[in-house]
């Protein structure tokens, strides 16, 4: 699978990248929302993992852009904000899953496996 990661926290970004590469996935790293949206316009990814709060464009704006582009990309939202309204808004915009930080890389992999075609 080709997986886009949009995360401005370098430690989290590298941790997810390491885990996904170890599991045999291809990874595209983006460090802000604008970079993620630009990449989604150019590449066909199988899954996107995005933080909510990022520079230039939020994870919610990324979700909205995916919908506007007409792409069918599952999106897992990562956030330290577990507030109900944020979670509900993300799901209303088409998020496939939501994980509250801090999280276990193993838990993230279990959730990703749900989106791998059988």
From TrEMBL:
The modification 4-aspartylphosphate is found at residue 51. Residues 2-116 form the Response regulatory domain. CDD domains: REC_OmpR (cd17574). Keywords: Phosphoprotein, Two-component regulatory system. Gene3D superfamilies: 3.40.50.2300. InterPro entries: Bact_response_regulator, CheY-like_superfamily, Sig_transdc_resp-reg_receiver. SMART domains: REC. One of its GO terms (biological process) is phosphorelay signal transduction system. This is Response regulator receiver domain-containing protein. It comes from Chryseobacterium soldanellicola.
């Amino acid at each position: 699978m080709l997986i886009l990661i949009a995360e401005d926290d370098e430690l989290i970004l590298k941790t997810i990248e390491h885990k996904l590469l170890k599991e045999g996935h291809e990874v595209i790293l983006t460090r802000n929302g604008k970079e993620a949206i630009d990449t989604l316009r150019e590449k066909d990814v199988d899954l996107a993992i995005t933080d909510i709060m990022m520079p230039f464009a939020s994870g919610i704006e990324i979700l909205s852009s995916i919908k506007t582009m007409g792409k069918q990309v599952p999106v897992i939202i990562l956030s330290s904000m577990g507030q109900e309204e944020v979670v509900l808004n993300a799901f209303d915009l088409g998020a496939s899953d939501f994980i509250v930080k801090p999280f276990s890389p193993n838990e993230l992999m279990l959730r990703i496996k749900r989106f791998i075609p059988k």
